[in-house]
Amino acid sequence: MMLYSLPTLISLTLVVAMESWWLKQSLPHPFYAIASRHVWLPFLASICFTRGIIIAMPNPLAGGVHSALSRLIVHVILCIAGFLLYALMLQHQSPAGLPPLHHWWAKVLMYFNLCMIGLHLLPLPQLLVGELIAVYLNQRAPHSTLNLTFHWLKQSTYGPWVITFIAATSLLDRGLGQLVFPVYEKLATLAAQL
After folding, report:
1. Closest Cα to residue 12, out of 42, 70, 57?
2. Cβ atoms 109, 88 nearer than 8 A
3. DSSP per residue over 142-186, as a string?
4. What DSSP character marks residue 56?
5. How many other CB atoms are found less than 10 A from the CB of residue 147?
């Protein structure tokens, strides 16, 4: 758990801080990024059930495509930063024993943000593709079953539990893992070759 918690805290906090800066909105309080249960429930489920895809849902300041796009861009930047830190850590390994903790944290920073980039490709609320679909459905079919389901998932108190259930099952590993795992393998190999 300790291997995942610091990079996750850093990522979630920086994503909301940059969203706040881009949208020119102030944060309600310093711990806003990590204060909601829907942030931590999917993360804890994916760790406790030893899933390959590690996710944490965002606690956004605003809804919409622009906000989701800003979060995706920050995840891309943090994934690149994690890759560069991981490559640097591989160059300076300890001579014997396990690698130091910051070596693992750099790797998890890269991997967690890669998982979050992949998560933005799913049709879920507060994520880029989900927000694009919501805009389309609101314009084309505002009373469709899919649109009503999407709004229920976004506003219901059961929404975080549905996402947590998805994170606890192997659905993300089998679906999203087909994209994330090969990219992660190539990034880790490239970092070792630098």
Report:
1. 57
2. no
3. TTSHHHHHHHHHHHSTTHHHHHHHHHHSSHHHHHTHHHHHHHHHH
4. -
5. 17
How many CA atoms does the CB half-sphere of 68 hold within 13 Å?
23
3-state helix, strand, coil in the chain (%, to 5): 70, 0, 30
Q: What pTM, to 2 d.p., does this model score?
A: 0.89
Kindly compute the dihedral angle of the four CA atoms of residues 86, 91, 96, 101, in this order, to the nearest 10 degrees: -20
CA dist 167 and 102 (Å) reads 26
Query: Of all helices (H) and strands (E), which one includes residue 105?
Result: helix 101-119
Instruction: Retrieve residue 135's tokens.
Output: 């805009």
pLDDT of residue 98: 63
- By C-alpha distance, which of 124, 14, 28 is closest to 70? 14
What would the pLDDT profile of 46-94 be if each residue is shown by its tens digit? 988 888 899 988 888 888 899 999 999 999 999 999 999 999 988 877 6
**How far is residue 12's CA from residue 59's CA, in Å, rounded to a whole number?**
8
Helices (H) and strands (E) in the chain, counts: 9, 0
Tell me how far apart the alpha carbons of residues 32 and 81 are, in angstroms, rounded to a whole number. 23
Q: Which amino acid is at 56?
A: A
* CA 33/CA 16 separation, integer angstroms: 6
Cα distance between the two ends of the chain? 29
